[in-house]
Amino acid sequence: MHKDNGTIIIAGAGLGGLTLALCLARAGFTVTVLEQARTLGEVGAGVQISANGARVLYHLGLADALRAVAFTPERGELRHWQSGETLSSRPLGKESEETFGFPYFHLHRADFHQVLADAVTTTVAVGAPGAIHLGAKVAGFDQSDGGVTVSTQDGRTFQGDILVGCDGIHSTVRGQLFGPDAPRFTGCVAWRATLPVAALPTGHVRPVASNWIGLGGHFVHYYVRRGELVNCVGVMEQDEWQAESWSNEGAKAEFLKDFADWHEDLKILIRNAETCFRWGLFDRDPMPDWGAGRVTLLGDACHAMLPFMAQGAVMAIEDAYTLAQCLTVNGANHAAALQRYEDLRRQRTATVQQMSRDNIQFFHHADIPNLTERMGKHRAAHLWLYGFDVTDQDFAT
Ligand SMILES: Cc1cc2nc3c(=O)[nH]c(=O)nc-3n(C[C@H](O)[C@H](O)[C@H](O)COP(=O)(O)OP(=O)(O)OC[C@H]3O[C@@H](n4cnc5c(N)ncnc54)[C@H](O)[C@@H]3O)c2cc1C
Predict the structure, then answer these.
(1) Rounded Cα distance, 51 and 41, in Å
(2) pLDDT in tens, 134-166
(3) Is the dihedral of CA 307, 308, 310, 316 positive or negative?
(4) 222 noted as active-site residue
(5) Spatial CA neighbour of 327 closest among 312, 344, 314
(6) CA distance linking residue 333 with residue 82, whole number of Å
(7) What pLDDT, on the 0 to 100 scale, is given for residue 34?
C-alpha cells in the first residue's frame, strides 16, 4: 500500500531525476516529475557506472534489468596515443565485485534511461497519484510556509512540499535560486560516436575500458549494449566553443582530422562510426549552497563536472539516494533534511569536480616525466570513489 510521506516535484527526467524519482517513490513519497522533452530518452552515447553507483541501482532492484543490457569490462587501461603501449591497467570485472561488492557497468545511455523509466512508471503506477509529465518545461517556482508551486512554460502549475532541480547544467531552478550565470567552457570539446562491433575486424576492441592519453587530447572507447556496440569519446583541446552543424559524413571527416596523428586503431573506429557529434565540455566551480527553503538541486544542476573521472551521472545517483534518505529519516522537518543532504554531498562532489579538472593535465600530456606518480594517484582516486558506501551514512540531523 502507498504511504504518503509528502509530494516531491522533480524538474528534469534525466538519469539523476529518474533515479531520485525511484528512490522517493520506493520510500513512500508522491513524486511529480516534470520533463521539458516531449518523449523520454537519452542521447545515443555510452556511460560508465562504477561500483559506488551500481550499489544504489542494485538497492533499487535494478540488477537484472541492468545486467540484461550492460557490458562488464575486464579492466580499465591507459594507453599511449601513438605507440598503443599499455601504460597502466586496473581490474574492473570480477575484481570490482570482489573488492567493492558491486560491478562496473558500461551502458548505452538510452538503455540505462529506459531501465530507470520503466522502474519509475511501474512504481508510480502502483498506487501513487504522482506521474511523469512530458512537455512540461519548468519556468519558475513560488514557495511559502505551506509548500511550493511550480509553473511550466505552457501555463500549468503543480503543488508540492519540496522542489528538486534535476534540470542539468543549464538549470532553470538553479537560475531562480541564485541568479543567472553561465557554466565555464573548459577548453575541451568531445567527439562522441557509436558503431556496431560487426563492422570491425575481429578482436579489434579489447573487452576493457580504454583511455588513450595523448598530447592535447585523449580518446576513450568501450563496449556497450551487451558488447554489440562500441562507444567512442575523443576529446581535444580548443580555445573557444561554437556549436557547429555538420552532416554525419562531414563530422566524421573532422573527427578523423582531429585525430590524424593518433594510432591507426583509433582511426579504424572513427571510419566505422555510425553517428558522430561534437559537444563543448563545460563545468562549474563548486557552489557554497545548493538550495533555499523548500527547493534544492541535484546532479549537473549543482555540480557539473568534466567527464574525466566518468562520475557525473554516478554522483547524481549518489545524490538521489542521499536526498531520499534525508527526507525519509527527518520526516516533516524538510529544512533540516535538505540541509543534511547538502552537508553530506557538497564536499565529495566538489572533490570529484576538481579531480576531473586535474585530469586534463594528466590525460593530455602522455609524455610528462611524472606519469608513474600520476597513474598511482589516479588509481588511488578510483579506490576512494568506488569504495564509498552511500547507504552507510548518518542521514539524521
Ligand atoms: C562526453 C561525456 C561523457 C560522460 N561520461 C560519463 C560516464 O561515463 N559516467 C558518468 O557517471 N557520467 C558521465 N558523464 C556525465 C553525465 O552525462 C552527467 O553528469 C549526467 O547525465 C547528469 O545527469 P542529470 O540528470 O543531472 O542532468 P541531465 O542528464 O542534463 O538531465 C537533465 C534533464 O532535465 C531536463 N530539463 C532541463 N531543463 C528543464 C526544465 N526547465 N524543465 C523541465 N525539464 C528540464 C532535460 O531535458 C533533461 O532530461 C559524461 C558526460 C559527457 C559530456
Answers:
(1) 24
(2) 999 999 999 999 999 999 999 999 999 999 999
(3) negative
(4) yes
(5) 344
(6) 57
(7) 95
Mutate to test the pocket of ligand 1, among 18, 35, 298 (most ligand atoms within 8 A of CB): 35
Segment 192-242, tens digit of pLDDT = 999 999 999 999 999 999 999 999 999 999 999 999 999 999 999 999 888
Find the 33 Cα to ligand 1 centroid distance in Å.
Answer: 15
Pocket test for ligand 1, best of 49, 167, 177 (most atoms within 8 A of CB): 167
Whether ligand 1 lies within 6 angstroms of the CB of 128 is answered as no
Is 268's pLDDT higher than 90? yes
Q: Which of 58, 104, 222, 321 is catalytic?
A: 222
Does the structure show a pLDDT above 70 at 30? Answer: yes
**CA-derived radius of gyration, the chain:** 21
User: Could you state, in order of their start, the residue ranges of all structural domains in the chain?
Assistant: 7-72+104-182+285-366
CA of 178 to the centre of ligand 1 (A): 20
Look at residue 124 and tell me whether its pLDDT is greater than 90: no
Closest residue by CA, ligand 1 atom 41? 138
CA 233 to ligand 1: nearest atom: 1
Phi and psi, residue 165, nearest 5°:
-85, 105
Is the C-beta atom of 279 inside 6 A of ligand 1?
Answer: yes
Task: Determine the topology of domain 7-72+104-182+285-366 in CATH.
Answer: FAD/NAD(P)-binding domain (3.50.50)
Residue 181: other Cβ atoms inside 10 A: 9
